[in-house]
What does this fold into?
Amino acid sequence: MIRLACALSLVLFAASAARADTVPKRVAGLWETVTSTNTGSTKGRECIDEATDRLVYQASTALTCRKLNFQRSADGYLASGNCNSGGMAIEESIAVTGDFTNFAKAETNVSMSGLPGEAAPRTFRTTIENRRLGDCAPGQQPGDVILPNGEVFHVAPPSR
It folds into this structure.
């Protein structure tokens, strides 16, 4: 049930957070991405350009509240919000930092209370760290995601 609640929260916020037009795009090229959550981490590479850069979109999928507006901070961009969804109270925040040329990092925190069968609030954290490796390899196209086992799949640009 908790996974279902998390999945629902991911879907609800993705569209609104993707509008974070004040956060810069990463420089085009091949980026290594390490995504860490409460339950573990994954690593991959992605060939991106301006249209296929999904950093804010990826980080935002951990959030639920709509109409979050990014504000410039001393070292990046911040957004936060509180809302209710399906009988749950949700507090969330996202911070995006980096130079977006060689490094970018997005961190999200989501606290949900009122989950069925849960007396205490549940907190979910996601960190996405990105390092630019250089230009995309010959034969790669923007939107290609390369998994650790070498498998490649193509991801279309996020809807805006």
In short: Residues 2-154 form one domain. The chain is about 15% helix and 45% strand.
